[in-house]
Amino acid sequence: NTMMAAQMTDAHRRFLQVLMSNGITEGSEARKLHQHCCETDKVYYAHDKLDDFISTINSHLQPLFMQIRKGISEDDGRAHYAVVNLAETEVTKMASDYTEIELELFRKTMDLIILSENGFASSTDILNLADQLKTKKMKKKEAEQVLKVFVEDKWLSEKNGEYTLHTRCIIEMEQYILSNYQDVARKCNICHSLAIQSQVCESCGIGMHLPCVRKYFRAQTEPRCPKCNEFWSCDIP
């Protein structure tokens, strides 16, 4: 490919900096940020060219083994962007921010979430693990505090005492999860990215994200599995 990658400008650098400090940025925020950076640094702005703008940054990040990745929120199907370090798995990245015992609690929580039917683990189940940790036992109060930090840092999200993986975590950890949970980690049959919160076909076992289920069945007269054509028995969200 003889084409030179488009030049990085101050607008690209500014955009990247904000993305990195945010950890994760929702799509509409990223579009606003794109415009803001271009206008601030007097760089040509085209509102429909965010993806090109990002791929310019990505071509310059490549030698650094980094990449801006786009992912979809499992709650509402909205796009999000996160900067991913390809050289180290997120678990090593997390290792610089958390203690060994906190990481063990996180990994155990991730096990519960990924092995669950619906992609959630209850706080009760997670807290019961806290006193079985190999590193050292953790008191429930301590464990609750640590879970709170994982939510604030956008590795987990929590609804009514149920925990699941945050969109940021899924974008950054997709490869790690697919290779470490090969038997259970499933990709969404519709969008082909990792599905944690999903509905599963009772007949053939494929999974679909809830927003994808909603979209897919909107057009069908009766809900049938896109793969085996059996009746879809889950409640359509």
Can you describe what's shown?
This protein is α+β, with helices and mostly antiparallel strands and 237 residues long. The chain folds into three domains: 10-64, no CATH class; 91-174, Arc Repressor Mutant, subunit A; 185-236, Zinc/RING finger domain, C3HC4 (zinc finger) (Herpes Virus-1), CATH 3.30.40. It is 44% helix and 15% strand. The chain has nine helices and ten strands. Strands 1-3-2 form a three-stranded antiparallel beta sheet. Strands 4-6-5 form a three-stranded antiparallel beta sheet. Helix 1 packs antiparallel against helix 2 and helix 5 crosses helix 6. This is Non-structural maintenance of chromosomes element 1 homolog. Pfam families: SMC_Nse1, zf-RING-like. It catalyses: S-ubiquitinyl-[E2 ubiquitin-conjugating enzyme]-L-cysteine + [acceptor protein]-L-lysine = [E2 ubiquitin-conjugating enzyme]-L-cysteine + N(6)-ubiquitinyl-[acceptor protein]-L-lysine. Keywords: Chromosome, DNA damage, DNA recombination, DNA repair, Metal-binding, Nucleus, Telomere, Transferase, Ubl conjugation pathway, Zinc, Zinc-finger. It is an enzyme of class 2 (transferase).
